[in-house]
Amino acid sequence: MSQEGYDKLIAELQRLESIERPKASAAIAEAREKGDLSENSEYDAAKEAQAHLEDKINQLKVTISEAKVVDTSRLSTDAVQILSKVEMTNMTNKAKMTYTIVSESEANLREGKISIKTPIAQGLLNHKVGDEVEVKIPRGTIKLRIDKITIG
């Protein structure tokens, strides 16, 4: 995982714990004040929202505890690996594409960041500039030529 991705996870955890958790508790307290809890759908909804929030916090804590921040100064551009920014050409339609291969939690297609677990990333791993790789995707097989590798 990149340092930037790790920092975003820490910031999100802090936001959830310091802002969202107190909001959830306040919503439960407010619903509780409205009387009979057995028929109080507002109370049930607030408790459910709190449970979802706690699940999200716990999942973030696990992701953070298992995260390994990659030292980008030690990465090479000889072959595709995590945090590689890969410029490639689809050999069928000659379309140019650029993706950065990142950890699953950092993936964001709008930013051109794809998870290392995607078929395209898996097909590119360990290949070099000039290599043509065939990648099986849900719609079939595509042939990609690696044009350039930089560090993301």
Architecture overview:
This protein has helices spanning about 5-30, 40-65, 120-125, and strands spanning about 85-90, 95-100, 115, 130-135, 140-150. It is of the alpha+beta class and about 150 residues long. It has a 5-stranded mixed beta sheet with strand order 3-2-1-5-4. The mean pLDDT is about 90.
- Which range best describes the helical content: under 10%, 10-25%, 25-40%, 40-55%, 55-70% or over 70%? 40-55%
Distance between the termini: 11 Å
Please summarize the sheet with the most strands. Answer: 5 strands, mixed
Please state how the strands of the largest beta sheet are arranged side by side: 3-2-1-5-4
Low-confidence stretches: none
Percent in strands: 15-25%
User: What is the string of SSEs from the N terminus onward?
Assistant: HHEEEHEE
Task: Count the E strands.
Answer: 5
Overall pLDDT, averaged?
Answer: 89
Query: Quick one: overall form?
Result: elongated
Tally of individual helices: 3
Q: State the oligomer.
A: single chain
- Rg to the nearest angstrom? 22 Å
Q: Please state the structural category.
A: alpha+beta
Q: Which characteristics define this entry?
A:
3 helices; 152 residues; alpha+beta; 5 strands
Secondary structure blueprint with pairings:
Blueprint: H1 3-32, H2 41-66, E1 84-90, E2 96-102, E3 113-115, H3 119-124, E4 132-137, E5 140-151
Parallel strand pairs: 2-3
Antiparallel strand pairs: 1-2, 1-5, 4-5
Helix pairs in contact: 1-2
In short:
41% of the residues lie in helices and 23% in strands. With 152 residues, it is of the alpha+beta class.
